[in-house]
Amino acid sequence: MPILIEARFAFHLPVPTDVLLQFEAAEIPEQKILANSTRLSTSEHCARVPAQDEIGERIWIRAEGNFEVAYRAKVELTRQLEPLENFAALSPHNMPGGTVEYLFDSRYCPADAFQPFVDARFSNLSGGARIAAIRDWIYDNFTYVPGSSTTATGAAESFIVREGICRDYAHMLVTLARASTIPARYVACYAPGVDPPDFHAVAEVFLADPYTPDGGIWQIVDATGMADPADTVKIGVGRDAADVSFLTSFGPNDFRSSSVRVTKE
Amino acid sequence: MPILIEARFAFHLPVPTDVLLQFEAAEIPEQKILANSTRLSTSEHCARVPAQDEIGERIWIRAEGNFEVAYRAKVELTRQLEPLENFAALSPHNMPGGTVEYLFDSRYCPADAFQPFVDARFSNLSGGARIAAIRDWIYDNFTYVPGSSTTATGAAESFIVREGICRDYAHMLVTLARASTIPARYVACYAPGVDPPDFHAVAEVFLADPYTPDGGIWQIVDATGMADPADTVKIGVGRDAADVSFLTSFGPNDFRSSSVRVTKE
Amino acid sequence: MPILIEARFAFHLPVPTDVLLQFEAAEIPEQKILANSTRLSTSEHCARVPAQDEIGERIWIRAEGNFEVAYRAKVELTRQLEPLENFAALSPHNMPGGTVEYLFDSRYCPADAFQPFVDARFSNLSGGARIAAIRDWIYDNFTYVPGSSTTATGAAESFIVREGICRDYAHMLVTLARASTIPARYVACYAPGVDPPDFHAVAEVFLADPYTPDGGIWQIVDATGMADPADTVKIGVGRDAADVSFLTSFGPNDFRSSSVRVTKE
Amino acid sequence: MPILIEARFAFHLPVPTDVLLQFEAAEIPEQKILANSTRLSTSEHCARVPAQDEIGERIWIRAEGNFEVAYRAKVELTRQLEPLENFAALSPHNMPGGTVEYLFDSRYCPADAFQPFVDARFSNLSGGARIAAIRDWIYDNFTYVPGSSTTATGAAESFIVREGICRDYAHMLVTLARASTIPARYVACYAPGVDPPDFHAVAEVFLADPYTPDGGIWQIVDATGMADPADTVKIGVGRDAADVSFLTSFGPNDFRSSSVRVTKE
């Protein structure tokens, strides 16, 4: 059953400004783009570059004045999913080169400091079973409170205040996964069921899969419980939210409005 | 004139442990490896994976007990270097996809917060001239004090205490460059002149170069003033020091000793 | 020439809640209260307790529903003021017991870390001359931007972003003074000239004065340049803003409105 | 049964330096000093000032070269102690003025941020019963690891790494108590049973006691479990460790040695 996506946002650039956009469903094997349409206001410059890990594209624009983005897509998902508990951990020494950076601390995910916590709290679990337990622990101990965090909030603060939005839930899961020596990245996405409807964010972890050439497979995990991994359309990935904003402005920018609608056909 | 490198380090693993090593001169166009030898203690497992940005390799081992690394290399450098002041800034909208992540905040480099500072302090400068001014500002305002920082120290703390080692100088430069919308990465390296002799770290910034297919070129910058970019042998690159340690242990590890000797033939 | 103060604020307590208020001009030798009037909504409980360093009072209330505070006062100031440059530093070993706590780190003022900075930047200055230089440095390097900081912002963050409001300016001055081994405290106050009119905050430093029994005297310093120390009416003092809020609620509280008017008769 | 204390420490001051010492058992009603002897190396200047909350004294010295402190005391304790569970919480609006500052955030105790955590974890408990539960939670979740923390470590970091020394245990308890609107301070002390023998630190909380003029009483709490409140000899109190170090040097200082011995007669 395809996923239908409609996203619009508008902003105003008081002076000519470079802006980086990343809002389109990524064309990757597990996501078949059946139809799509991207309309952008006219700009002095517009170029596409590949995004992180070659998942999706970023769009560079240089523009001035009012700028609007209107995006529609119909996406069929063929993601290979299994209960997390079915996956063993991949030993570090078997991890492919491209996953190694996802073991390390990043801006919002200071994983190293959390090693004693995960070792004590999830001591008897490993691999996917540990990730499932971490997901449930976050779900049980955190409260979803729109407006409770800012762009400065990282997992160290979230671990203390125990509230936040999808971004904070994803950072917390990424942090505790990396502290468990499981590669984890941040995924900007669209998903039906997100309430209030908005751009969404989840985590993705790399677990052992003997049937893949790499020896492992990325699996989506949403600690907010709002999105079903089977229905989640990836936009892009990164170390954490620092890497995959739908809008990054390199100069003054007045954000005006946004609306996101995601449904199953 | 080739650079001669001799590096040795030893550690003890009380139990079978996965360890990630990255200490060899990277084979990249600007670095010709004339001769080299890597000797490692025997291990249960040993595998090479490409390192970040395909610069150099990481070595995964799984081993127990005493482990020694002995590395020798003779490297000829053909790095294209010009005074930083000769380089203009590359407009963000012209930046290739692979450089975009180097604009963003990372674990030790919270660049965003430094925008007002760089805008005020280096307001009339851009591109390579700004980088040169940033390098000189760090050199003038920081004191090189071995032991003054820890693995928890990031550029926010260094900016306050104004002392540190090569790692902290590199983080500070990377941070202020990114705050200036200039892509910057962290480079683990060998260089003659480092005192006391040790593994070294510098920064690298991406500036406009109309003669390259990408429109830009990475240039090495060492705010400590100890290493000449012409003689600097890159081991690997990353967002910051979180990404390019010569030794990362995924379990208990007693570090025993290290020695580094770098000379010009 | 007396200072006339008019302050009003209102809030709503959805459930019976304990609230701490501190908004009245302190009765201290240098401040003669010529006339004053405090009107509070009725409350289940209302008690006055002495505030920090016996400067001013705090009012505990327990109330529910709408609560309003209306305060008017006419205050004559007889503060002993001299140019900061006239004051020498008091040697630490001569500091009275009550000033010692104002040498130490507090929540928003991590002074210790700033020792290398003040030693390098203000090396040739001591006592009042150093404080004047610190005040001028903050004034020159910071931008007053309402809304740029939050209640989580401390001097470490302000030193990086170099913008803030009176509270941040006061924290920065307190921090750099303590880093210079000069006792410094935070002062909540009223002052004409504050723009937009509001509760104000300044710093106070303890410098040598051979004519006092203590050997020293507190002097007001306002790095924002908005308030004249001669016209500044102290409400209360503390280590930093954590100690002297005009309203601290120990339960849910909807803040409704406030207005402050301070004039010279 | 009196407590016998023997403490010695030595340091070297390369240049004439001001130093603040605080190491003697405080003369307070609950602590009767039966005998004591303080021997200090000769110094250019030596003066005693009252310490925080008038509990104990601080000694200012100005000296150069080798400096030694030798302290012996015999102290009889008549502390009024009851199981924590017997104490109700004191309503904020009944708290005396001198306890109010112990509700607020301090350098190492960012209590505000922990409100959601204590509300969730200890929701059904108040007053002394909540403090007992907090003490037990820290004891159960933290590991005592000498050397695991530094003077920069606060309760936010300790809450994540879940290891530390007495100082960190005390900071954590103070933080969670204040987050529960219970005044809490940091107590430097001597106690038998501390292993390895050293200066010790515990927390003290202010709980309701209808038989006291203030309506409340301070009660010692040691989350490390090493010291019995009945045998704990207070040196001094403060907001946190920033306030009560046994040695604070305002200039270069080479610490040489210390030994502490505390026994019951």
From TrEMBL, chains A, B, C, D:
Residues 158-225 form the Transglutaminase-like domain. Gene3D superfamilies: 2.60.40.2250, 3.10.620.30. PANTHER family: BLL5557 PROTEIN (PTHR33490:SF12), BLR5614 PROTEIN-RELATED (PTHR33490). This is Transglutaminase domain-containing protein.
